[in-house]
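Open question from group meeting: does this chain pack into something compact, or does most of it stay loose? Before anyone orders reagents, we agreed to write out a predicted structure and look at it together. Recording both the input and the output here so the notebook holds the full record.
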Amino acid sequence: MVIDLLRSRAALEAEILILRQQINVLRRTRPKRPPFISIDRLILGGVCRLFPKMYDALAIVRPGTVIRWHRAGFRSYWRWKSRHRCGRPAVPLEIRRLIREMSIANPWWGAPRIHGELLKLGIEIGQTSVAKYMARRRAPPSQGWKTFLRSHADGIAAMDLFVVPTIFFRPVYGLLIMGHGRRQILWFGVTAHPTAEWLANQLTEACGWEQVPRYLIRDRDGAYGEIFLRRVRFIGIRDRPTSPRSPWQNAYAERLIGSIRRECIDHVVVFGERHLRHVLLSYMSYYNGTRTHLSLNKDAPMSRADATAGRIICHPILGGLHHQYTRI
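Structure tokens returned:
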């Protein structure tokens, strides 16, 4: 450009004429659209924007194409100008999932409460970020049916009678009393003649006079007579008998009796009341302290500590029907 300022006008016009003629030759021999790189678009668009009369000198592109290039450059410039330079760090996906799970599991917790729990877990995050990733609810928070039932389980006990034949084919009755909280067996009673007075005494011995359940679930067996009902009311237990012919309403006790039969009684020949009581008490010790349960997250009703060091020892239970494994 500096050299062109020192040249004569005639020489410049002659050079322009030669260049235009070469462009015409190229347009005839190469009818396809020629490729342009970024610097070509920058020069053509910038010069034509500064000198609008230069649009008439465009030969290989249309003026609308140059205007489109200029607008694209304008957008790229301001995109670069407003690029993300700094700000809050991105929250990892695991923490976002944890925040959502905590907000769903605890519907009454707000962002400050969840934020405090995360800080106690060693997770550094802002409270506004916690509020951003919490689960949104259309309706006011409410507990689920599972939570509602579990919150009342500790105050519910169930009882039921089951029949076991002896070696001489005489029926012996077993009484099961269990708590719904952790499916724990509270009491086993054995008798050949279940009466209302005997059932009332068994209930008193199982629950005592202080730690009594709030509700008692039982069936409508005729053995639960007036003496038993008066004892239940006197202790302060709310009696809740099931509907006639509805064993599913006392499902936990029925399920436990089935486990007792499958895992113990069906494999033992009972000699009498004393023998059956000994067998059931041995099974109760195994069931409450050793046997794992799916509903308790593979734990025993009386929580069993994990052992990770030492040699594994096997202890037979009920003559080898079951075994307990410990470390020493």
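Observations to bring back to the group:
The chain has a mean pLDDT of 84.
The first helix runs from residue 2 to 6.
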